[in-house]
């Protein structure tokens, strides 16, 4: 089997570096090109990057020459993965897709576009069918696939199996890691020994993106789920790992033990096909009363599983705490897994 | 006016030291005696304490000789303040009260006792009237007054003015500081760069103690308010300042602007009488969308005011974030203010 | 006595805010004007600043209108204090001085200029006499006085009384707080849970600036002390407080007890005249074997005293640990104290 | 080749857990038994341990039954590894050795005993020959081998290749991680946002233990190197990674470039024999001016390599910064590597 050759936009950023590391040992995806900002173009990757990932820069990436984001620099790859900053992504990605290049992207523009699939693989891999509609209606020569906001990626996991119980209202408080704001996103002086109870834009994205992902594909449209969710997003002095404290109100009592089993047994196409980046158990259910914790649980299954603990029932409500790796399940890993699914389904 | 002479149990602990500092400049309370564990008895305070409060040990306290917790060591003071650890407090405090000594205490035993007032001064100073019942029914020669759990002290403040709108349900997530577990409560290795989503005992205490404090004194009994509250208590790597993210569901829509005004104008007996430890505004309402924050807001009004921000309405719910100093409003300061109220009302 | 009217450049930065707070209760210096970057000019201070100092913005400053750095905006004050970033300071300060305005500045340009006094008041207040030379030789209409780098300000304090013993060589490791790099200087992701063993420019400045400050004024020149010092400057995840671990090698053994006394008794003109910002004891000598510590000692005497501990002798070497508040003794406070000395000596 | 069967004392502690994880994938050492404190004896390992290492408890260890420290519980293993707390180690280890069991131990008692080898494998593997003397003179039936203090293990690495240049004096400041004090060693309240410039016992151990390890084995004795070293040991709020800032004074100038090469090329018996836990390059030399850093460099070669940066020469001195993983090179890994060497040399 030939390897998929990919190029990576935003390869020197924090999420980009994570992808470089994850791809370095991938069985069938080969990192063929790396792209970064104009002042780095032409340099070798090892000279262009200020490496902050654990371990050394993977050998295969060290001597890649940094290219631009222009389509001409990406014609000879199978797919472009994008870890671009949101403010740059819109123009660059659109231009690539129009020129016939397929893009799988982590950035926020177009996420809510009704003809662009927003994929969290275990939840809505079937939405990739939307690509056919996209091709017909948009007249793009390439395909565009998006991944969700990091917190939505994590929170939507346990919501999926709960949907069928008649979810009525969600009250969510998030405790999000500093890396979610980017490597330079928050100064030590502002977040060290502190909590900032607000993250711009985040509180809206979570229910909106989750509502799209959890929707059913009906014909050539997604029937969005309207989540009556209130979210308060806070930033805590933790490096990696977004936590959500979730109170789910249902129309009638739901059994906590049943929920526990549903979550533990949750799995989908990526697990069925045993895809290389798929976690065996996308949702780990923890019994310890003081779990999940970022320092202990965030790296479970290489950061691709989310951990759920403290499942409790009171009357019509179910409460739990969920934790996930915002850089892997929430960003670099989800993109790679999406690409694996696309290939398995023949979109690439 | 003669000064009130007090002795202080648990004087070398973190809350004890805070009291020593607060009392050092008090206009009419004099720290006459300090008590600590048996191995420190007989030493000078400055030799017995490992001082961690800011600044030097107050001069008046430095050379006090540490005494035991036995009643004979506290006969010649007007009141005993207690910052004892919970596990020691029950026996010691009971013995003192039986021997005719009045105790105002921060420790947890007896807090839910129906004949012992649990005082957060601005909220339920009137509950001190219960002391008359206590005297009659218990036959103690002294009086016993309790202060609430530190988180309950902070959260109950904004709940008081909201009660009248017909509070239906509360969903609360707390982000609590490490000092709430005591100076040695949590190792750096466990809470540094981490969140622990569980605090033993805390989730029950908050609604129970708040329900008692918010209740009305009817005859010689408090009619507890039954709060339908679910609390998830988390520990975050912050030294001082407990935060609560509160979603309050009402029976009908409540106007956020009105709530804002109610909170801003909140005040009671301690403010009316201008007591020395009373904050001018017990509740600060902040407009900045990213406030309150422990590093900026916790010391407002010397730590005696709580700060409320992000007040928002959606349908029948009001949401907000509240922050308070767990060592001052939540412990040392609330005890001193309680004593000030007791004296103003003639109980001492 | 008329108050000195000052204006403050860089008033919205971290050091600027510290000066605003310190000046708000000053007995004879009045903050008359605040200046900040062009996009803030014309706004009220309270709207221009993102206040991070403890407590509220001082009332007297809240409604000051932000002015530019141009000389015409500062003609009616007695002195301009500068907390400008280094890269902006050179041009702005020079223009002001040429136009007849006296500037006392924290910024780095001109610090090593032989005709500009570099003042750490207790150490070299006498260097202010250099202003007469400055006036003659430079032909400036105003005067320019500089304060040292924050670490040099702290380290030079205990070196002064040691000089006379025949200092041969200094080996210094610093553990510096994050605030020394400015509020936005270091991202949480880079310094949280980390040590960075390098601070650009710092290792040279410390011996050079100290050598100038410790020099004797001979006629109209300072005879710089050539310190044979090697410095390794590290950044640690601490918000405020620069620590230096100092090994001083002498030509012959020096008695530790004698050093202890010299340091404890150290004082100079600011102490003699009891100037308002002068600490009573510029050097606190601590006996506890695990002191000084930033969390306990940095605020001693309002941040104007440095703390020295662990004084030990081995053969010809004396070792100790010194700690100081990099924002007060190292920046905002040293500038105000310098101004107090200048006024006392009649330079203003 | 048969596997070596080992039992592990102190298996539930932080270092013990690290050993359990490292041994779980070892090619020829099998963890056969785990021992812990009396109240855990009889439980399964997975029930006795509060697992804090990354990932799940290794399967092979989960169901091991915890045994006591008594010799009868360790008769059927080839070696006992000890990660016991210092205060318990002396009696337990002595008893085991007397009863014929070979012990390789991390604990501090007996480290300076002239007949007990203190092994940092790359530095002094040849000292294992001392075991023959030990056997003759002590009359123990088993053998006792010690590993050094974690900081001495790290610092001694770069000192070894420097010795030959005529080391005259060492001035060392350490910045040590909190894990060095044990998992419960330091409360968050004391070390968070702080530096504690003192670690009990540490400053003496470093030169003493290094002097023993760096000594030459002459006949049946080690000729200790007398290091004229002054050490100031500080604790910084970092979880893992001890750093040393080293100034080495020589009798004559030493070329920095030559030192760099010596360090880079350093290697010994463990590298020659390609032992499984041996790092390829025991000393990594880093070029970046702001390296090494705990967050980036501590896990190099699985934590078994130390990282050296900022090598500089001034006159007769060479300065550098060294960093190592205190839990792997400084504790769990060094013990396992020592055992590998012992087996390779036929001592087991």
Please characterize this protein's 3D structure.
Chains A, B, C, D: InterPro entries: ASADH-related (IPR051823), Asp_semi-ald_DH_pep-lack (IPR005676), NAD(P)-bd_dom_sf (IPR036291), Semialdehyde_DH_NAD-bd (IPR000534), Semialdhyde_DH_dimer_dom (IPR012280). Chains A, B, C, D: Residues 5-131 form the Semialdehyde dehydrogenase NAD-binding domain. Four copies of one chain form a homotetramer. Chain A is α/β, with parallel strands linked by helices and 348 residues long. Chain A folds into two domains: 4-148 and 332-344, Rossmann fold; 150-325, Dihydrodipicolinate Reductase, domain 2. Chain A has 13 helices and 14 strands. In chain A, the strands form three sheets. In chain A, strands 3-2-1-4-5-6 form a six-stranded parallel beta sheet, with helices on both faces. Chain A has a six-stranded mixed beta sheet with strand order 10-7-11-14-13-12. Chain A has a two-stranded antiparallel ribbon with strand order 8-9. Chain A is globular, with a radius of gyration of 20 Å. The two termini of chain A are 13 Å apart. The mean pLDDT of chain A is 96. Chains in contact: A-B, A-C, A-D, B-C, B-D, C-D. The interface between A and B is large, with 36 and 35 residues.
